[in-house]
């Protein structure tokens, strides 16, 4: 992370760079407390070694620039955020789609139960 302070412009800016950011989806079957950490470690290892098509979002590099103005507007600081990324590739197979839809249904049902 790089921090630059510019007193003349009355701004503070920070740059964050992320390399190899990706999104991987898999399901742990029959996971019990005693086995949870071992299965999770195995899944993460599998994700790291995964072929490109196992990722929902293939790994990519991104950088973010956040600029905070020292001028207050309505007693709140003003921020400008700029993002830059490389090529974004999205993939999803039928099993991943089914798991996401099931999770979405579960969350929807939970919300309905909370309202009752």
Explain what the structure shows.
This protein is an alpha+beta fold and 116 residues long. Helices cover 34% and strands 41% of the residues. It has 2 helices and 4 strands. It has a 4-stranded antiparallel sheet, with no helix packed on it. Strand 1 (2-6) and strand 2 form a beta hairpin. The longest helix has 22 residues, at 94-115. The radius of gyration is 21 Å and the shape is extended. 1% of the residues are buried. The model has no long low-confidence stretch (mean pLDDT 76).
Write down the overall geometry. extended
Q: What series of H and E elements makes up the topology?
A: EEHEEH
Q: What is the CA-atom radius of gyration, in angstroms?
A: 21 Å
If strands are numbered along the chain, what order do they take across the biggest sheet? 1-2-3-4
Unreliable residue runs: none
- The rounded distance between the terminal residues' Cα atoms is 47 Å
Helix count from the secondary structure assignment: 2
The counted number of beta strands is: 4
In short:
With 116 residues, the protein is of the alpha+beta class.
